[in-house]
Write a structure and sequence with these properties.
The protein has a single domain, classed as Beta-lactamase, CATH 3.40.710. Helix 8 crosses helix 9. 47% of the residues lie in helices and 11% in strands. It is an alpha+beta fold. The longest helix has 15 residues. The chain has 14 helices and 8 strands. It is globular and about 55 Å long. A hairpin with a 4-residue loop joins strand 6 and strand 7. The protein has a 5-stranded antiparallel sheet, with helices on both faces. A 3-stranded antiparallel sheet has the order 3-5-4. Bound molecules: glutamine. It catalyses: L-glutamine + H2O = L-glutamate + NH4(+). Its EC number is 3.5.1.2. This is Glutaminase. One of its GO terms (biological process) is glutamate biosynthetic process.
Length: 303
């Protein structure tokens, strides 16, 4: 079966799941998204991208942006980040506060919100405009200069951001932020508010599948740094569901509460899915099923 036919089959297969789960409701701009939508794209490292369904519809990428921010900090700083952020799965929800107190302000990994705040903090020190640096990377790698932030989502994130503000203040109290809390939160909220399509996202992730090489052939990451980011995605990219994703999909994946998933097939390509209804752990329900079917049918997993 061709990849295009497989993608179309998957879109039909997941259709009944689109009524299950719930769209994120913590901000109005996400709460009003129509749940019956599904898109999926596959970008191979050496051929044309293919997609199905709503693969060209922009959505809020939310925490998927955390992979790109992490890549920029690893590119700039190498191993230094790991004295301020762990790299173990958290086994708790993405916005949990409790672990932080036990672990004295050192977040368990860079993909839970606390860890991503530390990554943004470091990117502010390295790049000045951290959200702008992530946006620039996404535009360059996707080849789409129209990729942008949704100002309504950014404002809503800030207006409903008490939990993230609590995480940031708590870490600041342990001396784990270099920049003012408000500056870090602003960069974090704007990065969560990036809007992209499955097509943009799959292309933008290709530097990971190319073991660190950017679209123009220049290195962003070394091969070993790319491997390490894949490892952190596999173990932490979907929060307390990382075990289930590894079991069912067998690829490094990063999720966002906008319903997107980015999955890397190292050396082969990138899959992006979007289905806004989430399971109770905040990951796209139909997206997980779609990735499961794709890797099961093709046999393309890292295992
Ligand atoms: N998992 C996510 O996508 C969470 C992002 C969301 N904006 C938050 O900070 O809570």
């Amino acid at each position: 079966m061709s990849i295009q036919a497989l993608l179309d089959t998957i879109a039909q297969h997941v259709d009944p799941l689109l009524d299950q789960g719930r769209v994120a409701s913590y901000i109005p701009a996400l709460a009003r998204v129509e749940p019956r939508q599904f898109g999926m794209a596959f970008a191979p490292i050496d051929g044309p991208i293919e997609g199905t369904g709503a693969w060209r519809t922009p959505f809020s990428i939310q925490s998927i942006s955390k992979v790109f921010a992490l890549a920029l900090v690893v590119a700039g700083d190498g191993e230094r980040l790991w004295s301020r952020v762990g790299r173990e799965p958290s086994g708790s929800p993405f916005n949990s506060l409790v672990q932080l107190e036990h672990e004295r302000g050192i977040p368990r990994n860079p993909f839970i919100n606390a860890g991503a705040l530390v990554v943004m903090d470091r990117l502010l020190s390295l790049a000045g405009d951290a959200a702008g640096a992530v946006l620039e990377l996404l535009r360059a790698e996707s080849g789409n200069p129209a990729v942008d932030m949704d100002p309504e989502v950014a404002a809503s994130e800030a207006a409903h951001g008490s939990r993230n503000a609590a995480l940031a203040h708590f870490m600041a109290s342990f001396g784990n932020l270099e920049n003012p809390v408000e500056t870090v939160l602003d960069a974090y909220f704007r990065t969560c508010a990036l809007r992209m399509t499955c097509e943009d996202l799959a292309r933008a992730g290709l530097f990971l599948a190319r073991h660190g090489l950017r679209a123009d052939g220049s290195p962003l990451l070394t091969r070993s740094e790319a491997k390490r980011i894949h490892a952190v995605m596999l173990t932490c990219g979907t929060y307390d569901a990382a075990g289930d994703f590894a079991y069912r999909v067998g690829l490094p994946v990063k999720s966002g509460v906008g319903g997107g998933l980015l999955a890397v097939l190292p050396g082969r390509g990138v899959l992006a899915t979007w289905a806004p209804a989430l399971d109770p752990r905040g990951n796209s329900l139909a997206g997980l099923e779609a990735l499961d079917v794709f890797t099961t049918r093709t046999g393309w997993s890292i295992f």
